[in-house]
Amino acid sequence: MKQLPVDKGTKVTLNFALKFTDGQVVDSTFDKGPATLEIGDESLPENFEVYLMGMKAGDTATYEVPPEKAFGQKNPSNVQMFKRSIFSPDMVLEPGVVISFADARQSELPGVVEHVEGDQVTVDFNHPLAGRTLIFDVEIIDVEPAQTAH
């Protein structure tokens, strides 16, 4: 049987790991069991799908993904200042704390407290992996035609 390469319209079973360049693991399926996804279903960012194109069952690879091809560079306009008084008085506000805000469409928008000084709280709404070069380890287990219902 001819092995099907990864392409749009395929269902892929794979193991992957996303790591920082220092080796710290951000996410991995190697210790949990493989993931199955359809190319183009947005369960994997499109920029990462590009690296899988053409791979076949049994293939393994390691890619270094620069910020521009991962989660983008940090955007300074995504860092906002808030008055301490808009937060509940008993809320812990310290660097690294993730706070959930609602955006204009009432979608959840997580922000990370970057800095607290006096009555000013600086919150970063950039993706936590923005500005980072990532190592993307991939092991393709199976590739089959997607059974997409239209």
How would you portray this structure in words?
By secondary structure, the protein is mainly beta. It has 2 domains: 10-71 and 130-145, Chitinase A, domain 3, CATH 3.10.50.40; 76-124, Thrombin, subunit H, CATH 2.40.10. It contains 1 helix and 9 strands. The protein has one helix at 46-52; strands at 10-20, 25-28, 35-38, 60-65, 79-83, 98-102, 108-117, 120-124, 134-145. The strands form 2 sheets. Strands 1, 2, 3, 4 and 9 form a 5-stranded antiparallel β-sheet that branches. Strand 1 and strand 2 form a beta hairpin. The mean pLDDT is 92.
Write the layout of secondary structure elements.
Blueprint: E1 10-20, E2 25-28, E3 35-38, H1 46-52, E4 60-65, E5 79-83, E6 98-102, E7 108-117, E8 120-124, E9 134-145
Antiparallel strand pairs: 1-2, 1-3, 1-9, 4-9, 5-8, 6-7, 7-8
